[in-house]
Amino acid sequence: MNEWQRLDEQYILPTVSRLPIAIERGEGNYLIDTDGNRYLDLFTGLAVNVLGHSHPAILRALEEQGKKFLHISNLFLNPPAIRLARRLVENSFPGKVYFANSGAESTEAAIKLIHKWIRTEGKGKDGIVVLKNSFHGRTLGALRLTRQPSVYQDFPRLDFPIYEVEPNDVDELIRVCETKRPAAILVEPILGAGGVLPLSGAFLETMGDICRKQHILCCVDEIQTGMGRTGTLFAYQQTGLQPDLLLFAKGIGGGLPLGGIIAGHRLSHLFRPGDHGTTFAPSPLSAALGNAVLDVLLEEGLLEKGRQAAEHLWNRLRALKQKHPDVIRDIRGKGMMIGIHTKRSPEEIRRLMLDFLKEGILVNVTARTVIRLLPPLTLTREEIDRFADALDEYISARFSA
Ligand SMILES: *Cc1c(COP(=O)(O)O)cnc(C)c1O
């Protein structure tokens, strides 16, 4: 055990099982630890560092905005945030943005807005349909602890109805919506923590249909799939869905905490001053970084470059699946959000992750046996080949005997 591990254990609550390396700095697509070892970062802090580390556009925005002001509160007009909101709306669907500090807070805002809709315009409807194994955040609903009636009003208690539907089970979705009359359906276009599981075209089409015909709110959690990760700014843009509500976070702040929702025209008129808010969000610095991320994605062509890199990565992975059918069950996901579903035990896959770490390649494991890749969109062909060659050799040496 190294010194940092010892101190971490002594002073930080163990809510996560950590890798045994302490990070000193990031450099492009690499992380460098306190012993000077370099790691190709195929995880980007869980889909956050879309541009890799210490990207010049991010550093420029940090310096420019950092010199101006870091925090002003919501009492003032916030030019970097207004600019970011405008660009998000112009590159998705007509509506308005509420900014938050994290993904879970974006979910909280979404719950409150849906609830407000139920009370005003969605009379007779209640509850939210979500998918089995979906992940939308970890807060318990801070409202339960807030005891100021003007703040909690009659916003949702923790016991508002939730209906769980199996991902891609079209019949179950139809049945639940007909019998329960839910107010909203909320899905991740690709379930992230649920094992990198894309929703099928048929399922998404049915969802869109039901929402239109039954007057149900169509909601997408793009916290992980957004910011160019799947090849378009948001993943729903490759489906026929027309969201009423979109949740974003993770990549948007260029490494700083930032999240929020885009509310379409069915919802954008509902929140009134006092209905929701937070001290920090939108952080002007996070918003400035968000604008820098959009500059690089939309104006400097990284979205397109990322698509090309992803295509090469997918070609290499598909070839590996053909070569090692007894080890690789399936490659799932889209663009730079990839799950390599294996036929090996959780112990073997965890060992693979640690062995790769020793070789200087950082991959993640989710759903126990899925190797999860969330690379930066700046990943190069050479870096892709290095990873694919390493995986090929590892499988041949360790698993194919
Ligand atoms: C990470 C994630 C969240 C929660 O975001 P936090 O910033 O960790 O609170 C919500 N939904 C999805 C799809 C996520 O991937």
Strand arrangement, largest sheet?
A: 4-12-11-10-7-5-6
How much is the average pLDDT? 94
The CATH architecture of the largest domain can be named as 3-Layer(aba) Sandwich
**H and E order:** HEEEHHHEHEHEHEEEHEEEHHEEHEEEH
Parts with pLDDT < 50 across at least 5 consecutive residues: none
Beta-strand percent range: 15-25%
Report Rg: 22 Å
Structural class: alpha/beta
Number of helices: 12
Major sheet: 7 strands, mixed
CATH class of the largest domain: Alpha Beta
Count of domains? 2
Helix content: 25-40%
CATH homologous superfamily of the largest domain? Type I PLP-dependent aspartate aminotransferase-like (Major domain)
Instruction: State the separation between the terminal residues, measured CA to CA.
Output: 32 Å
CATH topology label of the largest domain: Aspartate Aminotransferase, domain 2
Hetero groups: pyridoxal-5'-phosphate
Please give a structural write-up.
- With about 400 residues, the chain is an alpha/beta fold.
- The protein folds into 2 domains: about 150 residues, Aspartate Aminotransferase, domain 1 (Alpha-Beta Complex), CATH 3.90.1150.10; about 240 residues, 3-Layer(aba) Sandwich (Aspartate Aminotransferase, domain 2), CATH 3.40.640.10.
- It is built from 12 helices and 17 strands.
- Strands 4-12-11-10-7-5-6 form a 7-stranded mixed β-sheet, sandwiched between helices. The protein has a 4-stranded mixed β-sheet with strand order 1-2-3-15. Strands 13-14-17-16 form a 4-stranded antiparallel β-sheet, covered by helices on one side.
- Helix 6 links the parallel strand 5 and strand 6.
- The longest helix is centred in the C-terminal third of the chain and has 22 residues.
- It is globular and about 60 Å long.
- The relative contact order is 0.15.
- It binds pyridoxal-5'-phosphate (PLP).
- Pyridoxal-5'-phosphate binds next to helix 5.
